[in-house]
Specification:
The complex is a heterodimer. By secondary structure, chain A is mainly α. Helix content of chain A is about 70%, strand content about 0%. The model of chain A is unreliable at about 260-263 (pLDDT under 50). The longest helix of chain B is centred in the middle third of the chain and has 17 residues, at about 190-205. In chain B, α4 (about 115-125) crosses α5 and α6 (about 160-170) packs parallel to α7 (about 190-205). In chain B, the strands form three sheets. In chain B, strands 5-6-7-3-8-9 form a six-stranded mixed β-sheet, sandwiched between helices. In chain B, strands 11-12-10-13 form a four-stranded antiparallel β-sheet, with helices on one face. A three-stranded antiparallel β-sheet of chain B has the order 2-1-4. The radius of gyration of chain B is 25 Å and the shape is globular. Chain B has two domains: about 1-245, 3-Layer(aba) Sandwich (Rossmann fold), CATH 3.40.50; about 250-325, Alpha-Beta Plaits. The chains are: A mainly alpha, B alpha/beta. The interface of A and B includes residues 18, 21 and 254 of A.
């Protein structure tokens, strides 16, 4: 309970810390939301021109962005500390987390807020509303969507943590971690109809990009218990893998005194 | 009672070395490992309330030792007990007993007032609201933080920030505080004020101080005991006063002339000029070769002297000569 109380306080203080610079806080949030809208417009017109691809209608792109960007917004805003793991390792700031009590992963995760991610969250929610209203969602579909956002956020957190943890093993961990994370994120906002056959399997199991975007859209439109089970199991799988990988890798941490080298 | 008990502690680092004679592909698949001993079989005990300077040249093994003592690094060999706990196993419990300050790294929230960071650390250490409030008040009075406690941390001067860092690290009333270069970058006034505060917390709160610093003034004014490490081994572990007494081999005799010095005759064995000007001469006397009284007599014979001063060698010079000898 102490760790959770601290995590909540950490998030509050970090938001307050970011809000102190009010103007940059607001510009970053709305700037990011506007940036995302431009992507959406491109995808929407692409869908409208091409028509239905593998069952995907142009308006489904709102659902894709709704799930993936909302999950991205939740994790990257209040749990942004995980994206700094490579930096914490390089400049040995991980020491600070090891020297204080409470759950280290929770402390690292909540050690930072990414202001721009609030813009993504705002954008994700707007997309989600457009998607649900245009598809005339029932109450059950709303409940299912809410459950899926939670599951999708878990997958998002887990794979991001896994990518960042890789940097414990490499000298240039930043590049590899960010590369892996980049593959995951960029594929999560690609048109769901583009993934078929083996490619679809790869991006469901090995790099769960489709689990945070395309699969939830397909599931709320056409419910199947099997699909829900698969998404749930993938969330559990990546959750267990990433957390145990993090704690195993933490033992390799050698707290170097390397700071200020390179860029 | 020993608050720190270290026995035969070692830490090895491994790194890959490439065979210069072979090509890229060979080295990619056939990497040889080299082992470096950063800390080599050290043993150390510290009593509760002691003030220890743990010093050594760069790369001597100071930081690695502190990181093992605080539970950051896994030792390769040996045992450590801090307040009866094994750091790496009982890291969480240990964190309630120790405080840490790394001079070049901040733990405070930059855009918020200092009270906010202190409150966050209080919650981290399971303190209730009332205890946090009371402790912030105590530390504000002790460290004279009241004038800037409500300012955003990023607007504090370096001296104020270091006071704030130390005060925050004491929020949970730890029994030991580890300080790594706490006065680095501070001006002389801020350094003096920080040293006085450290002595105050040692006396008033009985906090054991374990300090590393390259500033000999820190060592001389705060630490009663000095542990010197080089090449991963402890080479000296003694009282600071004794270190100065035992290692002072040279004394400096400073003489000023009645009119001015014109000639500088050759000095007897054991005496060397370190400064030769018309208005002042400084002679370094190796007391192992010639005693001070004899050296003075020689100088009086040679020069028409107006004033004489005798200085002991500085701690900085003593430590430098120890590093060079080892």
């Amino acid at each position: 309970m102490g760790s959770l109380r601290l995590a909540v306080l950490n998030i509050k203080k970090n938001i307050a810390n970011a809000k102190e610079l009010k103007l940059s806080f607001m510009i970053t949030i709305f700037g990011m939301a506007i940036n995302n809208i431009s992507f959406l417009i491109i995808w929407y017109y692409f869908g409208k021109t091409v028509g239905i691809i593998n069952g995907w209608k142009p308006l489904d792109i709102f659902g894709l962005y709704g799930f993936s960007t909302t999950a991205y917004g939740i994790i990257s805003s209040v749990f942004a500390g995980i994206f700094d793991i490579p930096t914490y390792i390089t400049n040995a700031t991980l020491d600070n987390f090891l020297l204080t009590p409470k759950n280290i992963l929770l402390k690292i995760s909540t050690s930072k807020v990414r202001t721009s991610a609030f813009g993504d969250l705002l954008f994700g929610i707007i997309c989600f509303i457009v998607f649900t209203v245009s598809n005339k969602f029932t109450f059950i579909q709303y409940l299912l969507s809410l459950l899926l956002i939670i599951i999708v956020s878990i997958v998002f957190y887990s794979f991001s943590l896994f990518s960042m943890t890789v940097s414990f093993y490499l000298m240039d961990g930043h590049n590899v971690s960010n590369g892996l994370y980049g593959i995951f994120v960029s594929n999560s906002i690609y048109h769901g109809g583009a993934f078929t056959g083996i490619l679809r399997l790869v991006f469901i199991i090995l790099v769960p990009s489709l689990v945070v975007g395309a699969l939830p859209v397909e599931l709320v439109k056409d419910f199947s218990l099997m699909k829900l089970l698969v998404i749930g199991l993938i969330a559990i799988f990546w959750g267990v893998i990433s957390v145990s990988f993090f704690y195993k890798s933490l033992k390799r941490y050698d707290s170097n005194s390397l700071f200020g080298f390179g860029s | 009672m020993n608050i720190i008990e270290v026995k035969n502690l070692s830490k090895e680092y491994k790194y890959n070395v490439k065979d210069e004679k072979r090509g890229f592909l060979y080295n990619l698949f056939n990497r040889k490992e080299k082992i470096v001993k950063a800390v080599d079989d050290i043993s150390l005990s510290v009593k509760e309330g002691e003030t220890i300077a743990f010093i050594g040249p760069n790369g001597a093994g100071k930081s690695t030792t502190i990181k093992m003592l605080t539970g950051i690094l896994y030792p390769t060999k040996g045992s450590i007990k801090i307040c009866g706990l094994t750091p790496i196993k009982d890291r969480n419990k240990l964190s309630f007993k120790i405080g840490t300050v790394f001079g070049q790294r901040s733990q405070l929230l930059p855009n918020l007032p200092l009270t906010e960071s202190m409150e966050m650390f209080g919650v981290m250490y399971d303190m209730d609201k009332e205890s946090i409030k009371k402790r912030i008040k105590e530390l504000s009075d002790l460290f004279e933080l009241n004038e800037f406690i409500n300012q955003p941390v990023r607007k504090l001067s370096l001296g104020q920030r270091m006071r704030a860092e130390i005060a925050t690290s004491l929020i949970h009333s730890p029994r030991i505080i580890f300080l790594d270069e706490p006065t680095i970058g501070l001006d002389v006034v801020s350094k003096k004020s920080l040293r006085d505060l450290l002595l105050k917390i040692n006396k008033e709160e009985k906090v054991t101080i374990f300090l590393t610093s390259h500033d000999t003034e820190d060592i001389q004014s705060i630490c009663e005991r000095c542990v010197i490490i080089n090449h991963g081994k402890i080479i000296i572990d003694t009282l600071t006063k004794k270190l100065i007494k035992d290692y002072v081999k040279n004394k400096n005799i400073i003489i000023t002339p009645n009119v001015e010095f014109i000639k500088f005759p050759k000095l007897p064995n054991g005496m060397t000029y370190t400064k030769k000007t018309k208005s002042q001469i400084i002679v370094s006397v190796n007391t192992e070769k010639i005693n001070t009284q004899k050296a003075l007599q020689e100088l009086i014979k040679m020069y028409d002297i107006d004033d004489i001063n005798i200085d002991n060698e500085s701690l900085e010079n003593i430590i430098r000569s120890i590093y060079e000898e080892n």
